[in-house]
Structures are given as structure tokens and as C-alpha cells.
Fold this sequence. Notes:
This protein is 53% helix and 10% strand. By secondary structure, the chain is of the alpha/beta class.
Amino acid sequence: MANFPTPVVLGTDQVRARLDEFIVIDVRTAGEYGSGHLPGALNVPLDQVRRALPDIEQAARRGDVLVVCASGARAESAARLLAEQGIVTATLEGGTGAWAARGYELTTPPAAGAKAVWGMERQVRFTAGALVLLGLVLGWLAHPAFQLLSAAIAGGLVFSALSNTCGMAVVLGKLPYNRPRTADLDTTLAALRAEA
């Protein structure tokens, strides 16, 4: 079995004290990133990390890489993927949620006609709740078999908790308002290449 570097988990105070030393990569969706991110963070959504590997590897040669997300789960997944490629990273314990809870600054880009997007966890809760409610209502009004939709969502939530993955988040992450524009990702990758 191969030995991969173990990502380091840092607390908010540790990151705050060294923030200017890190190349910060935010792996949330573009919409979440746009709602507020750590100062200087570059957005590479989790599903684009493989595409960005060469640029992240190049940046990691020049400085320490900190991977962040909303709560830490997606950052942990990205850090494991990067570790498999030999890229040493750190993650922020509790993610941007913990950062904001400590009262630390989040940078919000100027709105260029963009609407604020809910965080992925909120999107998942809304979608799961709406589908469960829809299954129950259709089961009551149309046919009892529609209640299987509610059961399927409940089963998916249990599996999500046990596996620490979320298929619904993956699907929601592909919606247009959660996706970075190609030009935005290309700009981010160029910034990673130029990061000193």
C-alpha cells in the first residue's frame, strides 16, 4: 500500500495567524464561493480539482496549500485526492462556517449581476425535504406508491451519513448556478500558476 502525505487539520486561529503564508483553495461551488470566502482564496470546485492538479502541484512547490470548504468535508476529500498525488495540504477545521463564526473576515466579490446562492448543505436540505414532502403528498392524493420517493430519499440520507458522501450534492453541484464559468476557472488556474 502506498504511503501518502497526511493532510494537516488546522484550527481557525492557526490559519488566521498564518493566512498570508498559504495558497488558499476553496473547493465549494462557484455560487457558495461568491457568497463569501477566506481572503485571497481561489475557487477550484471539488469536481474540478483533478483538472487543476498540475497547477495545484506547481503552486504547492512554492508554498503551503490550504484547502477549505463550508464545513470541512469537501476540503477533506480534496486533500485526500491531492495527497494521493503527493501534494501536501492543510485543511481548515470547520471550514468557512467556523471561520465566520469566529468573526473573521470573509471576502465577497462585487456583485456582477449575480444572485446570492445558498450553501450546498442548505440546497441539499431543501431539495431532500421538498422531495420527501412531494412523495408524501402524491402518495396521499394520487397513489400510495409515490411514498416510495420519500423512502428512497430517507435511505439516501442514511447512506450519505454512513459513507460521508452526498450524491445529491454532486447532482446539485452540476446545476448552472453552482458551476464556475469556464473563463472563471481558467482565470483561477492562471492565478494558481502565478501564485508566489
